[in-house]
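Example record

One chain of 553 residues, shown exactly as stored in the release files.
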Amino acid sequence: MVRARLWRVGLGMLLLIEPLGSSWAAEGLNAADERVNRAIGAHVAFLADDLLEGRAAGSAGHELAARYVVSEFARLGLRPGGDGGGWLQTVPLMESQLVPDSARMELHVDGRTEVLEYNLEFLSGPQFTGTNLTVTAPLVFVGYGVRAPELGYDDFAGVDVRGKIAVMLAKAPPRFPATALAHHANARQKSRALVEAGAVGVIGIPTPKDLEETPWARRIMQSRFPAMRTTDAAGNPEEVYPELKASVSLSPQGVGKLFAKAPQPVTEVLSAAARSEPPRFPLGIEATIHTHSEHRRLVSPNVIGILPGRDPRLAGESVVLTAHLDHMGRGPAVDGDTIYNGAYDNAIGVALMLEVARALAEDGRGPRRTVVFAAVTAEEKGLRGSEFLARHLPASAGRPVANINLDMVLLGAPTRRYTVLGVEHSTLRGPVEFAAKRMGLELVPDPRPDRVVFVRSDQYSFVRQGVPAIFPKVADAGGDPVVGQLSPDQFLKEHYHRPSDEATLPRDAESSVRFARFVTLIARRVADAGEAPRWNPGDFFGETFGKAAGSRQ
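Predicted structure tokens for this chain:
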């Protein structure tokens, strides 16, 4: 059975057929809470519908999603913050797609050549600095490929990487404090270190823990999606490193062949790396890597709505709420389904942001500071939309003093336990603890800092611009799984970046309403505070990014 709903999109109406099985009503909610719950359900149901074909950045489906958000922002009475007085901020992008079956990797050992098998033994990313690239060079294992002088750690000390292909582990040494671990595990940071050391290519090898988090079969699927970069005024891709002419990753089978002539077996290397003591040495072989990529230029919008501040002294400062609007689009079929709908990643974040915007806009007394709401594009392509936004906030937004990012809020089971990533870095801890206490919530630390989640979503784009930021998440409620519910771990294992991330997945109504109100309290508290948030004294991110940002202001 189905029922029909009318959806506002821009100036028109859209008829959507909704399965009756996805009822949005919930027992035990009062009328006001039920209104919020139904609104969240409606936003998710539309944004994650097959009609939008997974909302890939630059696609017609993403454009339709953007128009939906425009309609909601306008209905709430926000002011447009996009280009030319409109709602949309155009983000210029270059897309690079690996030509199927074009990647080739050869190992040259003792005068013989061994060809590795694509998918089974290695995967390659597309390249941005050329369409046909080939590199042949000796291989050097460089541990994690991290240079962290502030921690007395340098994977490039004692090895010559110049003109060679660096072989390295993912992430960073586990002994690093969580913040430094996240920073030095970031792909941009590692790429810069490789270029400074003179590498001409990079081969990544996953640890057993990496493969537990993202199995090789899922890596194969993800490799089939294109990559993107923002482009500068001349149309050149940004954040690319032409010195690195190849970037591939190896499966365990491929790693075994790579270490065939190594002075230490790979098992010993991985054990030492788990102790944060990886060896570094030449591997005694050469490799040739070839890729053929196709490029196209495109644009995709950020959607920006502004709630002006009421205090003349503080209105020139802004609290920025972000949620990425894009998802994966169409991809490899899983059980016959090729649409990666992205209900929890991240239609839910956009839905929650819209409800926070509604609550603040309908409040009789406006916030003292300006509040900016941005549904950003191309998060799935490396935070490209938020990166562009953080560097090009409209003048009407004022100076950003805080970012609150909503991404993949996993509300599949009842919980009052929240993890707010980034809270330890700045005085944003105060508003977070205030809101948690007011609502009777338990704040728990990040249970898996080794996953370096804090640098993997849009708040990191603002951190890199020196803006204190937080990333609220739902923590696992604990206990045995309950039929009809979905834990965060279950989602990550079974639905993350898969077509099954659909609006029909379980969503707890009370937890949804509670989370929206939690974020609203935080945003209001930050917007009304007499002082802007600031980095804690000696904080790693404050020292790394905050001082440079202060010098630019």
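Notes: The chain has two domains: 31-77+308-552, 96-295.
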